[in-house]
Amino acid sequence: SVVLDLREARIPDGLTVLDIHATLGEVNVIVPPGIRVECEGHAFLGSFVVKRSGFAVDGDDAPVLRVTGQAILGEVTVKTRLPNE
């Protein structure tokens, strides 16, 4: 399993693409508030989801993180969390 914590990363304005492939495992991506997340991944006997929270942003001017890829017998989860949470 992998935890990719982007809460301290500098995500530029515009579009950033993160391509994830998980096979027989899990990848958890943690993003800070203020980032709009788009999920375009696919799962086969697994899951590829964005878990929305009260910190999720849907504004047109927010930086966009597009998560693509696939999960085969595995799981990819994207969550929004505060920096110290």
How is this structure best described in words?
- By secondary structure, this protein is an all-beta fold.
- Helix content is 0%, strand content 54%.
- The protein is built from no helices and 8 strands.
- The protein has strands at residues 2-5, 15-23, 26-31, 36-39, 42-44, 47-51, 64-72, 75-80.
- Strands 1-3-8-6 form a 4-stranded parallel β-sheet, with no helix packed on it. Strands 2, 4, 5 and 7 form a 4-stranded parallel β-sheet that branches.
- It starts with a strand and ends in a 5-residue tail after the last strand.
- 19% of the residues are buried.
- The model has no long low-confidence stretch (mean pLDDT 89).
Task: Give the averaged pLDDT, no decimals.
Answer: 89
- Portion of residues in beta strands equals over 45%
Helix-residue proportion: under 10%
Radius of gyration: 12 Å
Query: How many separate helices?
Result: 0
Structural class: mainly beta
The ordered H/E elements are EEEEEEEE
> Looking across the biggest beta sheet, what order are the strands in?
1-3-8-6
Largest sheet: 4 strands, parallel
State the low-pLDDT regions, or none: none
Gross morphology: globular
Overall number of strands: 8
Straight-line N-to-C gap: 20 Å
Structural key phrases:
8 strands; mainly beta; globular; 85 residues; four-stranded parallel sheet
Q: Helices and strands in order, then pairings?
A:
Blueprint: E1 2-5, E2 15-23, E3 26-31, E4 36-39, E5 42-44, E6 47-51, E7 64-72, E8 75-80
Parallel strand pairs: 1-3, 2-7, 3-8, 4-7, 5-7, 6-8
